[in-house]
Amino acid sequence: MTFSSLGLSEDILRAVSERGYIEPTPIQKQAIPAVLSGGDLLAGAQTGTGKTAGFVLPILHRLSDRRIKGPSEGRPPIRALILVPTRELALQVEESIRAYGKYLKLDSMTMIGGVSINPQITRLKSRVDILVATPGRLLDHVSQKTVDLSRIEILVLDEADRMLDMGFIRDIRKILALLPRKRQNLLFSATFSDEIKALAEGLLDHPETIEVARRNATAEKIEHKVHLVDRDKKRPLLAHLVKKHNWHQVLVFTRTKHGANQLAEYLTKNGINSLAIHGNKSQGARTRALSEFKDGSLQVLVATDIAARGIDIADLPHVVNFELPNVPEDYVHRIGRTGRAGQSGEAVSLVCVDELKLLSDIERVIKRKIAQETVPGFEADRNAKPEPIMKAGRQARPRRKPGS
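Below the sequence we write its predicted structure tokens.
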């Protein structure tokens, strides 16, 4: 099957072809016809499956199809709203909209926190067909009466599971109350938890349901590896691995923002070009770090789980869990950034005695044992006593700050 067989317009197919894509991924094969039909959709797809194009392409087609009647008078309204959990993902999705819609007369914008609201207010005074927003900043605009959502035709909730994890459910409900009742709803989630099912039941009208990977599945071509090491030897071990194997474009996960900063500083002092990305960084700093990482000029990007949402890099070769996540499902999200679209990748975890229980939980979730290796000179002390692990990430759900 090719993209041309899915019923997309020639202008969209031209843009897709220019990006080098010929055959749609499994989620695209199912989602694109479902969205083109105009009905609601509940889609289960892990990160890295091509889900963004799965909804962007048919939305572009529907909004540009002259046979589908749009508004005929007054200033063109916002017709599609895509809600995402993080700023990085918003920028990534809008980049896809611009790339695939380059030959269409449609305009899009991002609405995110961490940057001044005034340029966004100015931008809203001109034409915006597709709005990609984080819930917090969208509600800031709603409170200032600078955005009109009354004529939305298509709503997308992307990475809905993460939005619920981040405590956005109240914000989502407030936003839903502002939308017209008659609209197309598309919900994308990596997992179908009970909370997601409840949200879908209240939001979707007789949806088509598709799921392209079993829950908590990991990409087949990812090589998983665990290095057992003492907690105080993790930093020098990581530096050793990066230098010895000449790794480039290494995405490293820590549990905390402070830990990310410290690790990036350590690696930089040891001759490895590194930056940290997390919620306390300015949006400008986050965007610059991500841009340098994507173009290969930054060797190591150290990230917290939430900040890493939306990092979409083709052929990312290495993901390192400097610390294992407290929630085992997050291991799947983390390593899903490598081994994309049939490419091979490597997921390395540095595990100390404190984390052996977390490792066991992860292996149970992914239904496989992960091979353990010891690096000479970094052997773990088998008699070391475990220490409590500070809870982070999903365990604590802070109240939303304005402009998130």
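Residues 222-395 form a domain with the Rossmann fold fold (CATH 3.40.50.300).
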